[in-house]
Amino acid sequence: MTGSIPIQYFLIISTLMFFIGIYGFLTRKNLITMLMSIELILNSVNINFVTFNKYLYPQNLQGHFFTLIIIAIAAAEAAVAIAIIINIYRNFRSIDVDNVDEMKF
Amino acid sequence: MSIYDFMTMRHELILTCLVLLVLIIDLNLKQSQKHRIIPIAIGLFFIHTVVGFLPAQTGVLFGGMYHTDGLTILMKNILNVGVLIILFQSTTWLKKEENGEKISEFFILLLSTLVGMNFMISSGDFLMLYLGLELATIPMAALAAYTHHQTRSAEAGIKLILSSALSSGILLFGLSLIYGSTGSIYFDTVGALYSNAPMQVLAFIFFFTGMAFKISLVPFHLWTADVYEGSPVNVTSYFSVISKGASAFILIMVMYTVFHSIAYLWKDIVYLIAVMTMTIGNLFALRQKNMKRFLAFSSIAQAGFIMLGIIGGNKIGMTATVYFVLVYIFSNLGAFGVISAISAKTGKESMDDYDGLYATNPKLSLLMMLSVFSLAGIPPVAGFFGKFFLFTSAASGGYYWLVFIAVLNATISLYYYLLVVKAMFINKNDAPIAFFNSDTMTKIGLFACALGIFVIGFWSQVYEFIDAVTFAIVN
């Protein structure tokens, strides 16, 4: 049962996931891995919303709705991003960010 | 709730039908006749723009998720006019051979993002705000990668989608903290409960970071120049004007209605960000040679000026912001219209190519001169009044040093705006861009900008009309 687990545990996990996602986004060189890092960030937000809803405000379901919509939008975002990544691969023959550097300061 | 209530969201409904209609009409066109969608789509959108100005009912829908009032309807109409001008200007480019099969995609994606922006402007809670923001961003990445055989366009697309996904992730984390600390996502409820508790301040900083990415304020501006340079010119003008205007508007709305109780905290943040945005945007604009990149940095600097309207926190600040967005639409679209007309005919986008343009294309040069004067804020044209009201609002809030820095920055910006004028009128060139005639629709689009730059500057009713619907920060 969730009742026996303190809310802090969920929040620590979600915060860790969020910053692992940020770290991964900033350090990884592969476009697909960067996309995965963004999924980590979005899922940490989902955990946050569901936890707050379940523990603090069980009477209103806005947190659950928000989570469902984030999942749907994350799927749409990933679809467009992967389509563009395929396009990048066709143009550059690589999905490494170091190669996608035609425009710079 | 009756069918009649749904007419409150008339703008969005008509626009959604329009997108579907363009999709269906495109299916029924033969391969060789795809370009016929251009006049049809522009005609339909013209009707939508006109209908948008008819009196609309205001109210609240879906239990507070969606609301309209005079201000949101005005903002939607401003955006509609801007998009109409962009559509007119893009005809020459769309008719090119390379776009043959995907002309309708341009309209569908562009109008979908406009639907998203309309929902975002009308949002009454954070869920609708997020939905509108994503609907406005995801198709935009597809638009940036529109010319998919060009490496630069694909690069712009991936840079836009990744940085905007990261920024919405950060924004969402802020929203989850807001929900956790207040138990609500409605603007009204959250605004009433907000205090300076550490978690709520942290939530605000996450939220502001996410929005700052979208408006490309300075520490978060790095994607802007690359995306602007890589995208097709007309898409770039859409990014820099419509998308930025809508995001700036919703940011000021949320700052005034939700985070008003911690205004004394965010004013310091906005102060610093405004100074950095203006200064860094201007300094980087000085060294650009590509016209699109040059205007990208100039638009970053302009976003810094918009922050001056937010920081005052008074009614004149909001009026000045909306007015500035209106002026900025016409002046920036004028500049981008000239660039797109030249780029569509000759493919040239470097500032050196503009040398001696006045001798061959005097009308285009004059419009470009008007636009950059308006962007720089030289008195007779509308841009001067836009900046003047922003400075007034910041000064009436007591931020004299900020106004001083802003005036310094306006002077710096004058230098690089005049570089373009100098290139067109004074620089000698053995082989300037030859004289060419744009088609009628492009001419209408360019003329509308010139008209707008003059009319808004001289016709004071525009400002008074905006002033009648704006509000000050709630205290």
List keywords for this structure.
heterodimer; A: 105 residues; Helix Hairpins; 3 helices; B: 475 residues; mainly alpha
Plain-language structure description:
The complex is a heterodimer of chains A (about 100) and B (about 475). In chain A, about 75% of the residues lie in helices and about 0% in strands. By secondary structure, chain A is mainly α. Chain A has one domain (about 1-90): Helix Hairpins (Orthogonal Bundle). Chain A is elongated. Chain A starts with 6 loop residues before the first helix and ends in a 13-residue tail after the last helix. Chain B is mostly helical and about 475 residues long. Chain B has one domain. Chain B has 21 helices and 2 strands. Chain B has helices at about 5, 10-25, 35-50, 70-90, 90-95, 105-120, 125-145, 150-180, 185-195, 200-215, 220-230, 235-255, 265-285, 290-310, 315-345, 355-360, 360-375, 380-395, 400-425, 440-460, 460-470, and strands at about 60, 65-70. Chain B has a two-stranded antiparallel sheet. The longest helix of chain B has about 30 residues, at about 150-180. Chain B is globular and about 65 Å long. The model of chain B has no long low-confidence stretch (mean pLDDT about 90).
